[in-house]
């Protein structure tokens, strides 16, 4: 018997919101894009109407809509927690872009609200749906690598650095960028908990800037004895770069070469491969996979595979990084 597609209202029509709208409408048969909300005049309609959906200028229009039973939140990060709570109180299932809040208290409020409302709550940690990362985790869980000992995850954004360093909120590299790596490391070390961190970061594209941190390296210790590093850069001239590595007692697995195909051109300039230059290009299948997971969870009346607890655990590492930078010491990770 065919399953009725989940009817989705999207909140936020910026870069990632517009991408999600297209993915839902064109690549997720388990879902239907019903409406898009954005307060900027004409923006929501410009995204929604070519996809057969309607544009709204208020969030409330989405939350009160009878033909919407799930929302995808792609608004500014500072609004995520409030929007999650409002959606839950309206009885809507929720997918929120990361982070689920800008503090551990906000994330706790969000996961409490969705639990009390009995709605599905998923956070957008897309690497869990990337084919290579999924295969790597399966190898780890099956025991092929033996005991996990060392892990590495990195994210490098394309370009030469922020055009306006002052427009980048303080600690963005931890709460917005490395949050993906923290979740990835937790996920690739199943059953283990991050114990403490040491973080170091600096402004290398705008030396001396008082708040910008555009390069960072974090060392994490886990309670199973494993050691992990997370690395981020806002200035990778060659394009968007996401990679991971896990070393175990019996082997190693790596993931995330970044090439668009197996084609390699050999000429006078050397060995060349075409690589992705944006997250939506490199992780297109992952975005479709995570949104399909929300739809399937709603249809199957279960919680998604990425929960509010995962959001809390990843942000707890981010917060420990901030505290480590502030204190200059190793900092324990909140449980």
TrEMBL record:
GO terms for molecular function: nucleotide binding; oxidoreductase activity. InterPro entries: Gfo/Idh/MocA-like_OxRdtase_C, Gfo/Idh/MocA-like_OxRdtase_N, NAD(P)-bd_dom_sf. Keywords: Oxidoreductase. PANTHER family: BINDING ROSSMANN FOLD OXIDOREDUCTASE, PUTATIVE (AFU_ORTHOLOGUE AFUA_2G10240)-RELATED, NAD(P)-BINDING ROSSMANN-FOLD SUPERFAMILY PROTEIN-RELATED. Belongs to the Gfo/Idh/MocA family. This is Dehydrogenase. The lineage of its organism: Bacteria, Bacillati, Actinomycetota, Actinomycetes, Propionibacteriales.
